[in-house]
What does this fold into?
Amino acid sequence: MKSRFLSGIGIVMMMLVLASCGKLPQTQIDAANAAVAAAKTEQADIYVPAEFTALQDSLNASLAEVEVQKSKFFKKYADVTVKLESVVTTATQVKDNAVARKEAVRLEVEALMAEMNTLIAENKELIKKAPKGKEGLAALTEIQNEMTVIETSVGEAATIFANGEFMAALDKLNAAKVNATNINTELKEAIAKVRR
It folds into this structure.
C-alpha cells in the first residue's frame, strides 16, 4: 500500500514537472518582444545597429525555438525561457547603449556645427583674398557656388538636428566638412602662390 502511494506521488510529481516544462512561456515572450520594441523606440537600430541586429536575431531564434517546441508532443520550454530572459537583459543593455550613443552623437553634431560655421566664415574671408586673374575669377565663381551648396547643407543639417535626427545630421555635416576643408586648402594654396 505504501509503495503504491509513493509511486502515485512519484507519478503526480513527474506529471507536474512535465506540465511545468510544457507550459508556453508567454510572459517571457511578451517581455522579450516589449524589450526589443523599447530598444527600437530609442533608435538602437540607428545608433547601435550591430548590437540591435544581434538582439533581433536572438529574439527571432528564440521565437523559432518556441514554435519548434509547440509542434512537439512533449514540449520543453525551459531552455527557450532562459534564452528569452537573456533577450530581455540584452535588450535593456542595447537600449542603454543607444541612449548613450545618441547623446554622444548629439554633442558631436553641436561641436561640428560650430566648427562648420567657423570654417565657412574663414572660407568667405579667403575668397576675398584669393587671386582674381582671368582663371582665378572662374575658379572663384565655382568655389562660391560650392560654398552656397555647403551652407545649404549645413542649414539642412541644423533642421534635421532640431528634429532629433542626430545621426542624419552628423552624416550631412561630415560630407559638408570634407568639401569645405578642400575649398579651404585650395584657397590657401592659391593665396600662397600669389604671395610667392
The helical segments are 2-22, 26-41, 44-47, 49-70, 78-129, 134-162, 166-195. The chain has seven helices and no strands.
